Amino acid sequence: LPRAEIDALAGPVVIEFGTDWCGYCNSIQPMVKPLLAKHAALKHFKIEDGPGRPLGRSFGIKSWPTFIFLRDGKELARLVRPGNPVSIKEALEKIDPAN
Known about the structure:
alpha+beta
């Protein structure tokens, strides 16, 4: 997705930057997936990141996984290598408070 399309998305959006071969990215999925599933209106995009990838650079991504929490195109929270479900839950509540 181009950055302009992401900035134009309405409602709650989570962008997850990482790679399929990132061990940390894969190891936290059992913690992340159930939390995301509780937010039906949420749009979730997993973006393959790496050097020279313009979308990751536009968000200043330096470590994986990085989660960007947006509402109506505005960044409300960012988590880099989240270590516990509470931080993810709190960020989700910022962008989708109805759930």
